[in-house]
Amino acid sequence: MQSPTGTRSLRRRRWPWVAGGIAATLTAAVLVGVFAVYPWLGAKMVRAKIGDKLGTKLGRQIAMGGVEVTFGHAVIHDLEIRGPKDGATPLIHVKRIDVEFDTKASFVGTARLGAARLDGVDVAVHRDADGGDNVRDMIDKLREGRSNTGAGGGESSLRPTQVVIEHIHFKGDDAVTGANAYVGTGHATWKPGELVATLESLSATTTGAPKAKAAELKITKRDHEPPLINVKGGELEVFPKLALSGIDGSISANPKVVGEYTIDLAGSYGGVADKLWTAKGAVSPGERTGTLDLVAAKFQLDRLAPLLEDSPVVDYAGTSVDTSLHLSLAGTLVTFAGDLSLRGLNVGHPMIADQEVHDLDLSGKSEGTLDLASRTLTLTKGDFTSRGVPFAITGKARQLTKKQAAAIAELPPVLDQAGNPIKRLGPANLEEVEVHLVIPPLDCQKMLTAIPPEMVPYMQGYKMKGVFDTDIDVAIDWRDLDATRLDGHVGIKHCKVVDEPDDGPKRLLKEFEHYVEVDEGNWLSFVVGPSNDDFVPFADISPHLINSIMTTEDGGFYKHHGFITSEFKSALIANLKVGAFRRGASSITMQFVKNVLLYREKTIFRKLQELFLTWHVENTLDKDRILEIYFNVIEYGPGIYGIGPASWHYFSHSAKDLTPREAAFFSTILPNPKERYKQYCQNTLRKSTDAKIDRILALMLKKERLTEDQYKEAMATPLLFAKDDKESEKDCLERVKKAIKNARSTNPLAPPKQTEPDSKKSKSSKKHDSKSDDETKRTKTK
Fold first, then answer.
1. Averaged pLDDT for residues 424-452
2. Helix 588-596, helix 606-618: angle, nearest 10
3. What is the mean pLDDT of residues 476-495?
4. Lowest mean pLDDT across 5-14, 316-325, 537-546, 598-607
5. How far apart are the C-alpha atoms of 331 and 159, rounded to whole Å?
6. For 568, phi and psi rounded to 5 degrees?
């Protein structure tokens, strides 16, 4: 049994243990409380500091997904910064933010940040059609905050010691300009005194303007130093299928001029590796001023071989290019001046010529302006020389605004007779264009020789004297096509042919052999002259036929010199309105040239040869001889050439005895004789043809080419075909169908067709199968 003294001693020894236990228990409770409550309090503090304070500072709503806080580390998931004009996509979305912070300071309610890491940052910037964007108001609020607190003040505790951003994605769109910009990925690092950002897979597109992209764009900004931008693998698409590529270099701020940036770039074309051009200059975006010099020093086109493999350019090893362009920006006005030298160019394309065209050259100087506000390009100087011939081009072009283009696009389409939409003739984004072309006086032979022979094979062998000049002025306003202006002259009238090739118009003064292609690859020939029984002399052609053709085709035939000058403007306006080149302002002489002297190729220089030969024919043959040949060679139906066979075939009498109605019928079928021959197969006129005949007869009466009695008799006399029963209607239509199918296409890009040989020979004709196609082109009219 313990004494009272021992008991007291034991109790004294137990109290420290109990106190320690209590203390330990309390400490454990406090630690448990801290570990349990701290993340919650930390998350609340994060939401308050970022969601409330930063949101207020930016003037934006800030939303967060999960927030995880441990001692010295916080993680924020799916942070969004959203404004009133963001639409469905927030301005900024960050997938994950990791932030280090001072744990001790956090216990007293202070946020002292360490390093921060952002991963998966998506930025979406846009501007609507009214000019409002989702960024400007936030920038203004930040500037307002800085002006109220002083530069750099206020929230230094919320500034991390370092920021690393990974997987940056950017998307921007501008409804005003139609521009779009994208950044595929990127990363950036910020630390006090330095920001380095690298963006990859960038692209930018605009409506009706260049498209750009870059493999990499690196931005470096250090305190007290101007920013530096380095470009790698850039590409700028100036026009479709023409791109400046391999763009490398830098854009840096000028330390001596605030707000000015120095540009130093170099690149190539179409993915070619070599650096073939440089761009150097300076620009002040804020002031909207700057200068830029683009130089493509002389180089041979074989360095662009990969780009030219599928182009019309051929044999380019000897072709050289040397060009420079100076640009100056002042507000919305860009002033340009440039030089160009292109030597030894060789091209091959069926739209240009049947054969390759060699030794083209072009050199010159140009000056002008581009007004970005009014979208107007003005060429004030364009002095050029090609193959020894000087010429000057000036003018202007104005582009539609995006709203105007959109309004036009909303209009219902204009349909042609077949119900197909008619496309606008000319660039879709042009509002108006003016062009003034001047070729100063020069020797006619020099002008003729300057045209590459491959382009104008039917103009070879001519010798000329005299002086040639040209002055043409064209103005087109798509808002008012009837106001189209086409003035000036082509001064060939002062030239004279002193010698011509054997197959020139002079041979047509007497009897000659004429070749026609019945269908593709199937040729026949016949004599145009008295030795051919089908030939009809001019005196034996019904005057009603002559009057009918002059009424429908060329009323001033006996007055003009081959060209209906007033019709050129009318034809241009008509073609612009229907959206295609369907009307050609052709006189009878021009039709004569197409049928007698020209092959039916559709190169862009065919018209030039047609005009030249028309002028020469008018100076070689008299009007009656032109009409005599014309009526004896043109087609009146499948395999029917000349008015002699045509009169007997359709009406069983001679061309001399054609009635006014029969003559008017021939006028209606000339534009498309094979198709309109179907009426003969069916032994009946279409209502449209019957009505057109009546209109022609009425016009002939009005122009006093018919008397009143002749008109009344013609209107009372029905048109009857002299059709026999040797061929059924079905067989006749099948024959026409085959003739139309086998007809040679005048489109040089059309694929070749397989044609069946026609063993039949027409009366007084002989078939020519042995000639090659190229040979026949040059000899068919000999």
1. 85
2. 110
3. 85
4. 5-14
5. 38
6. -60, -45
Average pLDDT of the residues of the chain:
82
Q: Give the number of other CB atoms < 10 A from CB of residue 216.
A: 16
CB 197, CB 187: distance < 8 Å: yes
Instruction: Output the CA torsion sign for 250, 253, 259, 263.
Output: negative
Rounded distance, CA 449 to CA 462, Å? 9
DSSP 86-105: -TTS-SEEEEEEEEEE-HHH
375-420: per-residue pLDDT in tens?
899 999 999 999 999 999 999 998 876 666 666 556 566 555 556 6
For residue 434, give both structure tokens.
């003016």
Closest residue by Cα to residue 532 from 644, 625, 638: 644
Helix (H, G, I), strand (E, B) or coil at 372: coil
Q: What is the DSSP letter of 313?
A: B
Total count of residues recorded for the chain? 782
What are the angstrom distances between the C-alpha of 419 and each of 413, 414, 573, 671?
10, 9, 21, 21
The CA distances from residue 107 to 52, 72, 157, in Å, are 20, 11, 15
**C-alpha span between 587 and 564 (Å, rounded):** 6
CA–CA separation, 510 and 503 (whole Å): 12
Bigger pLDDT: 670 vs 668: 668
* Dist CA 211 CA 203 (whole Å): 8
CA 513/CA 736 separation, integer angstroms: 26
Contacts of 424 (CB under 8 A, 6+ apart): 478, 579
Residue 113: pLDDT over 90? no
- Class of residue 15 by CB neighbours under 10 A (exposed 0-12, middle 13-18, buried 19+): exposed
For the full predicted model, state whether its pTM sits above 0.90. Answer: no
Instruction: State both tokens at 175.
Output: 């409804």
DSSP 432-458: EEEEEEEEEEEEHHHHHHHS-TTT-GG
DSSP-based three-state secondary structure for 488: strand
Helices (H), 510-642: 543-552, 565-578, 588-596, 606-618, 623-633
Per-residue pLDDT at 440 exceeds 60? yes
For 377-409, the three-class secondary structure string (H helix, E strand, C coil) is EEEEEEEEEECCEEEEEEEEEEECCHHHHHHHH
Q: Report helix, strand and coil shares of the chain as percent, to nearest 5.
A: 35, 35, 30
Average pLDDT over residues 311-339: 90
Q: What was the pLDDT predicted at 236? A: 84
Residue-wise DSSP of 116-145: EEEEEEEEEEEE-TTS-BSSHHHHHHHHHH
Question: pLDDT band at residue 780, thresholds of 50, 70 and 90?
Answer: very low
Q: Are 245 and 306 in contact (CB under 8 A)?
A: no
Cα–Cα dist 665/673, whole Å: 11
Can you read off the two tokens belonging to residue 764? 């007084």
Q: Quick count: other Cβ atoms within 10 Å of Cβ 451?
A: 18
The string of pLDDT tens digits covering residues 718-741 is: 999 998 888 999 999 999 999 988
Question: Residue 93's beta-bridge partner residues?
Answer: 80, 122
Q: How many CB atoms lie within 10 A of CB 106?
A: 19
pLDDT-derived band at 752, boundaries 50, 70, 90: very low
278 to 252, 268, 298, 308: CA distances (angstroms)? 16, 9, 12, 21
Look at residue 600 and tell me whether its pLDDT is greater than 80.
no
Q: Give the model's pLDDT for residue 782.
A: 34
Q: How big is the CA angle at 589 (ends 587 and 590), to the nearest 5 degrees?
A: 65
pLDDT score recorded for residue 441:
95
The HSE-up count of residue 227 (CA atoms within 13 Å, CB side) is 14
* Of residues 244, 241, 283, the one with CA closest to residue 260: 283
Q: For residue 708, with 0-12 CB atoms within 10 Å meaning exposed, 13-18 middle and 19 or more buried, which class applies?
A: exposed
For 430, phi then psi, to 5°, come to -90, 140
Contacts of 654 (CB under 8 A, 6+ apart): 536, 540, 644, 647, 648
Q: What does 358-371 look like in DSSP terms, one character per residue? A: EEEEEEEEEEEEEE
